[in-house]
Amino acid sequence: MKLRNMIMSAAATVSMPLMAWNGSVLISTPNTSMLLHADEGSDLRFAYYGERIDESEIHQIHDAWDGLNKEAYPAFGKKIYEPSALQVVHADGNMTLDLEVKNVETTTESDATVTVVTLADKVYPFTVKLNYRAYNDIDLIESWATYSHNEKKDVVLQRFDSFQMPIRQNDVWISHLYGSWAAECAVATEQLMPGVKVISNIDGARNGHLSHPEVMISLDGKPQENSGRVYGAVLCWSGNFKLRFHTDFRDVHKFFIGMNDEASAYHLARGEVFETPRVALTYSNHGMGEVSRNYHRWAREKGNVYNGGKLHDVLLNSWEGVYYDVYEPKMDEMMRDFASIGGEMFVMDDGWFGDKYRRTDDRKALGDWVVDTQKLPNGIQGLINTATKYGLKFGIWIEPEALHIKSELYEKHPDWVLNVKGRDLNLGRGDGEVLLDLCNPEVQDFIYNMVDTLLTNYPGIAYIKWDANVELKNYGSSYLPADKQSHIYIDYHRGLADVLKRIRAAHPDVVMQACGGGGGRASYGVMPYFDEFWVSDNTDALQRIFMQWGTSYFYPSNAMAQHVSASPNHQTGRVVPLKFRFDVAMTGRLGMEMQPGTMSKEEREYASKTIAEYKQIRPVVQQGNLYRLVSPFDGKGLASLMYTDDRADRAVVFAYRMANFNNMLIPRLRLAGLDPDKTYEFHELSVPVGSKPSHIDGKRIKGAILMDTGFEVPFEREYSSRVYELKAVN
Ligand code: DGJ
Hints:
Radius of gyration: 27 Å
Structural class: alpha+beta
Low-confidence stretches: 1-21
Mean pLDDT: 95
Bound molecules: (2R,3S,4R,5S)-2-(hydroxymethyl)piperidine-3,4,5-triol
CATH architecture of the domain at 8-301: Distorted Sandwich
Number of strands: 37
């Protein structure tokens, strides 16, 4: 069928008359539209992504832009002097593609419309499908590519980006996350300059420690929180990634996003389908804040964080309280003390397993998932019974993807680890940790069975902390054949996803945390299977303000595990008040990471009262709309953020004094996201025992005033903080 003179519209909320305009494909969400130009027999063109337009305005975009549109998915072959999204080697050695539009189809899902543009090579039987899922209740479009062919032998995929977008040059800035272990998710903001900007990762196992596969692209100069046109792009992939911005003398920055092609040539057999990960795209002309809120909603409501609509328990994790000393009496004591201040879940971290080798430190036993009866004479069930006695749920730590070479598992199955034939193993944590070969279905079964057995034998386990502490250090699989060794980086993560899908099918109600040796698994590649992730192994409240701020660019608060730990902090040595530590942790899923019995009587009283208050504000914090008010990265000595519910009837405001110098000006705090016409009553929360709430407690102030002129937040000194709940009273 000729596509010329046809409109394909994916605006499911609009009943659209088919009217003629030249092969345009309009993909729309409530407030945004993406416009492609798909003429049968020509290449696919990317014309527009921005504010929503309707069919009658398509030609106006073309008129206004003087027809400037670029190839939507450039493949290596035609313009070989320009960067490409896809590069292949055909069975006969030919390295080029020349793709033309064959077909455009749309299907309707309950909350979205999916548009599929089929392209095929003009000579070779090689097909590319470009998929676009446009939600009709969130400004979010998911895009991904699928490849298949009918050539005589394998086609080798050399590059396989999920998406490409040309972005008009004009003072364009990008904001992305970078960091390291214990310092994850700092925000990097930079202007796109001539040359190639690459954001990539080659850890192999985790992709959240260093750079992140998420970016915001501000089109109107330096990024602003509440103004300016901003694109967001998020790659839903847990493995290596590459984001590229090619800037040259042409009119556009070319933005590519997908799995990393490094050492990853992929052999695609005849009839086999290769699907790239999804890219979640959003656009707003109200700054980065709205881009973040779009992602938060998409994460919670569209299955991109498992059980994203559920409220999470306040939990205590044993790690920083006792490290490997998970002896039963200590566990019992922690549970008792935590229950007494209102805790809801107790999680036993690393150290509980090992028989021949005992997990007394990180130098052995990983992989031997049997209870260490010297530490836990009554086993896991004994702990579950104690938790139940105190009215707590129970959770447990595992690290299923790895083993330590000093383990019974390694002695039995040395071929189950990723290893390079003829070479010594490169060893990770504890001088012996290596990854299991998740490309191997036998290994996938082992991991699935281990988790399944644990959860089946102990139905009282309500929570799993799934850790991942080692990079992919040995690039070799005893399972994959010689010509498919280059599949390891990709097949590892496909294997992991398969295992996680099976676990979720069998155990849908268990809460699971993705931990990657800190924040390494803050990744939309795995979050469809996990309820939350561990933000960082650094629990220092001051540094957490920065890390949590960056994480919130793309991830919702209910997915962010944030724990109050001891002072001095174990990672930085910083001494900060318990209130400050609580106030920082309370902006996400609140927990503790210490022995609560070490708190003084006053501190316990304060913690108990504050946990009770957190439970009251939990629906607003965990499911609300985030407004970032003052960035810690701005160096004002102040950081502040707030949440509102959907009707703006309730809000919770957090403010932190991060530095104190004489003469330092602390600005008045202007709120956001309130209803200007509603009047709000202030209730100060998290007030230390013996202290009085500040002047504003109990006062009633109109939303318009709070957003226009703001209010004074009294801070005494460095590390003082305030939490206010606001309730609409009219
Ligand atoms: C790394 C995690 O991030 C920590 O929270 C803790 O679980 C340790 N691993 C245990 O080995």
